[in-house]
Amino acid sequence: MGFFNRPSPAPAPQSAPVPTPDPALGFLLAERVSPQWSGFLDALTHELREQLSPEDLRALLRSVGQRFGAARPIEAGESVEELQRAVNGVWNSIRWGYAELRDGGDVLHITHHLSPLGQALGEGSADAAAGFLEGVYESWMHHAGAADDLSARAAAPQPGSLAVSISFGKL
Q1: CA 44, CA 9: separation in Å to the nearest integer?
Q2: 3 state SS for the chain
Q3: Of 31, 125, 145, 146, which has the highest C-beta tally within 10 A?
Q4: What is the pLDDT along the chain (171 residues), one digit of tens a residue?
Q5: Contacts of 163 (CB under 8 A, 6+ apart)
């Protein structure tokens, strides 16, 4: 019996770590999610999935990413290499992996490696996590001087991948 002489509720299910090609790497990634936040993030993720469609969840996290990027503007720089250093300066400061940027002419190709968001949100959250990164990079590129009609779009996440591929341009 629980408090007030009622049966104790069953514990909430916990999200399993996101599977990775290498179990040791998966363990290390899961370790990057602070235990003080893991229970809250697990409950929040479950609730968001129940309340929102996958498309709406992705759109919500994209908006959160835009707000995140606007709150942490980067310096534009004079080259893709300088832009990459600025982006990675932010990611390194919060231990959120790193990005590789490559000029593709009309499109800037961004590969974000080792973001902890997929682990924090749990299995099945890769698409929503990619939406967050789209929002961040789109915000940063616009702050750096990109035209308003350019946008960021992530490729469909690959199962077990530890990278998110994003294109920024007229998509």
Answers
A1: 18
A2: CCHHHCCCCCCCCCCCCCCCCCHHHHHHHHHCCCHHHHHHHHHHHHHHHHHCCHHHHHHHHHHHHHHHHHHCCCCCCCCHHHHHHHHHHHHHHHCCCEEEEEECCCEEEEEEECCCHHHHHCCCCHHHHHHHHHHHHHHHHHHCCCCCCCEEEECCCCCCCCEEEEEEECC
A3: 125
A4: 444 555 554 444 444 455 556 667 666 666 667 778 888 888 899 999 999 999 999 999 999 999 999 999 998 889 999 999 999 999 999 999 999 999 999 999 999 998 988 888 888 888 999 999 999 999 999 999 999 999 999 999 887 788 999 999 998
A5: 111, 112, 113, 114
Please give the model's pTM, rounded to 2 decimal places. Answer: 0.83
Residue 8 is encoded by which pair of tokens? 């104790």
Residues facing residue 131 across a β-bridge:
none
Q: In whole angstroms, what is the distance from residue 77 CA to residue 119 CA?
A: 32
> Rounded to an integer, what distance in angstroms lies between the CA atom of residue 7 and that of residue 40?
23
C-alpha gyration radius of the chain: 18
Residue matched to tokens 């929002």: 135
End-to-end CA distance of the chain: 58
